[in-house]
Design brief:
Length: 171
């Protein structure tokens, strides 16, 4: 998928997203510190996230990369999940670096993630986003995701759940 001078492709190898994920986590953890007064070491959270990258591996997941002039500027992961009643795909870690912003790549990544979820056989996607991510919530709503209550498996640590917006969309 090509848009705004960039394109979205499968992340191969998956480790190519590590610098983007580190930038995302650094910014996000600063928001967490500012809003909740909780300091989490970015290096530990990054190591934990990278160790869990298998959740984005085919055939039950997808890891996508946004490129501008062949340089990685954004990423998103999709994983298969189940809440005990029905399967769904969960969108995780959608991020576009400052160098990639303003090109429509966030929307392109989201649409590619929705298509990947469909390709994985899902008819429902879910995600969660922190309260400070106003632009992300607006993008998700514009693409048809609606706010729901917390869902099984979403939201990370219990201390954060009250500060999250949970969303879903049929696909």
């Amino acid at each position: 998928m090509t848009l705004g001078g960039g394109r979205v492709v499968p992340a191969d190898p998956p480790g190519i997203v590590a610098p983007l994920l580190e930038a995302y986590l650094t910014a996000h953890l600063e928001d967490v510190r500012r809003v909740l007064g909780v300091t989490l070491p970015a290096s530990e959270v990054l190591a934990e996230d990278l160790a869990q990258f298998s959740m984005f591996a085919p055939p039950t997941g997808a890891l996508l990369l946004a490129l501008v002039e062949e340089q990685p500027v954004g990423c998103v992961g999709v994983r298969s999940a189940h809440d005990g009643q029905r399967p769904y795909a969960e969108i995780k870690r959608l991020y576009v670096s400052p160098a990639g912003r303003g090109r429509g790549l966030g929307r392109a990544l989201l649409r590619a993630a929705l298509a990947a979820a469909k390709d994985l056989g899902h008819d429902l996607v879910r995600l969660d986003t922190f309260e400070t991510m106003i632009e992300a919530r607006a993008l998700y709503a514009a693409e048809g995701l609606r706010t729901i209550g917390p869902y099984h498996g979403g939201g990370g640590p219990e201390a954060f759940r009250s500060r999250l917006t949970f969303m879903e969309r049929d696909i």
